[in-house]
Amino acid sequence: MCGIAGEICYGDRRADTEAIRRMLPCLESRGPDGGGLWDGGRITFGHRRLKIIDLSEAGAQPMTDERLRLTVVFNGCIYNYRQLRDELTGYGYTFFSTSDTEVILKAYHRWGADCVTRFLGMFAFAVAEHDTGTVMLARDRLGIKPMYLAESPGRLRFASTLPALLAAGGVDTGIDKVALHHYMTFHSVVPAPRTILSGVRKLPPATVRVIRADGTSTERVYWEARFDRSLEEADWTAAVRERLRLAVERRMVADVPVGVLLSGGLDSSFIVALLAEQGQKGLTTFSIGFDSGGGESGDEFEYSDLIAKKFGTEHHQIRIGQDRFLPAVQRTVAAMSEPMVSHDCIAFNLLSEDVAKQVKVVQSGQGADEIFAGYSWYPPLAGVPRDQAAAAYAREFFDRPHSDLTRQLNPAWLPDGDVSRAFVEESFARPGATTAVDAALRLDSQVMLVDDPVKRVDNMTMAFGLEARVPFLDHELVEIAAACPPERKLARDGKGVLKDAARGLVPDEVIDRPKGYFPVPGIRHLEGPVLDLVREALHAPAARERALFRPEYVEALLADPNTPRTTLGANQLWQLALLEMWLQQL
């Protein structure tokens, strides 16, 4: 796991090497173990390294193969790199390192842009051909690793984080009205390729973009899970268990120890159980808890302790008091590449700070709810006619209807029409998802999952140089989950097939418990110093000048900070304040 950056210029224009140098300090937390820069004339790549595989300098980046005339910068991990290395050796390739980075170089030379279909893992990378000037940008199937883009006449820049692009300069930081509508409507998610800033875009998941020396380019999506019944499985429970077992085994590939973030819920507990079954001894696990607030408990240690005891892990409880919580709020906002309203961000930031002191790699349970239908908005869609599915989804998931938003945003910031509803309708109208639940799961796994929980985990763990691996997003497991009949996923209050797969390995008390979450009462219930931060952000001169929100809406929320909630129960005031806090720290 690392931080990457680069500039690609067209024609005879040389890349601005100093701009890339300005980007690299912004990526240092993602790669604290070293850095490098490659100047290829009209192409320049920069890199910050986190040493996970091949700890020697042979694995340093940017990596160049002079024989093949290729240079790569890469963020992520290719879990099957050893198998691919053996295959490529059979084709006559020789290797100067034991890194997965070099496997990407050789695979690209052998198979071209199709190399991505052979990679099992998470990745964002750029490969430059010295002789032709062609550059390929690629992102993994589920968008686990980020890639932000800033284009201007004659050049394209890319980076692992949005702030790194801003550090290079020359970026339009105006607000994208369509993205703002998505942020306020689509549960604070801004679908790719947009970001909240007009001048920054992001390469969509499962996408390859090939850029030629003259600036022309092609872009294609190379993978999509099929949400239909084309895959016949006699035993879905066994299939899910076996695919997850393989996924967690793959994610132990490393030249450093691998731990587990153990919330005490089904998903992370299942990961620990499968690793224990595979003979992993002395596994290190971590859980976090906060002070109670607003009548809500701040921890789930009861369940994480139960799992740690059953499987004999070296378990660490991380207890967060008010002395650490308040400073972490602003630090967490600064670590966001895009504004992310989930209070889980603060939990992951604090958890990552402590975990990174002990291990460099962890497995985490993100993604299970989005692929196995674990959320509250899926059951109401069961049985909804396919032509009514988009409307039903919007009622269940959207933070507010467009009619409410017109009374909350200032008129100057309203786009033409209900763009979020149109986005969902377009997605639901695509063929290939048999039922309303299938269509919702397809949209959530391709968009919401990528630009909420997955991005949250990446941003917060990498703020401390901690690599998070997510076995539930192994694409082969996602394909099984997508093909599984919705009724099997919706059974037993959601994730039925996953619960069946866990039975006998994970204690029944965990499988049958009510659905939990990362409890952060200090954000769900705003009071005291945190509420003061919120009020300060919304009353700041920059906020008044920007004037995104109608003043009467802001003042009504500040007068009653904890009652107005979104459809899914999020604090409306925090949603506004988080956006302003993020914009003000750019």
From TrEMBL:
Pfam families membership: Asn_synthase (PF00733), GATase_7 (PF13537)
Q: What is its EC number?
A: 6.3.5.4
- Give UniProt keywords alphabetically: Amino-acid biosynthesis, Asparagine biosynthesis, ATP-binding, Glutamine amidotransferase, Nucleotide-binding
Q: Which reaction does it catalyse?
A: L-aspartate + L-glutamine + ATP + H2O = L-asparagine + L-glutamate + AMP + diphosphate + H(+)
Which InterPro entries does this entry report, sorted A to Z?
A: Asn_synth_AEB, Asn_synthase, ASN_synthetase/amidase, AsnB_N, Asparagine_synth, GATase_2_dom, Ntn_hydrolases_N, Rossmann-like_a/b/a_fold
Stretches assigned to the Glutamine amidotransferase type-2 domain: 2-214
Protein origin, superkingdom: Bacteria
Instruction: Give the similarity note.
Output: Belongs to the asparagine synthetase family.
**What is the official name of this protein in its record?**
asparagine synthase (glutamine-hydrolyzing)
Q: Which species is this record about? A: Actinoplanes subglobosus
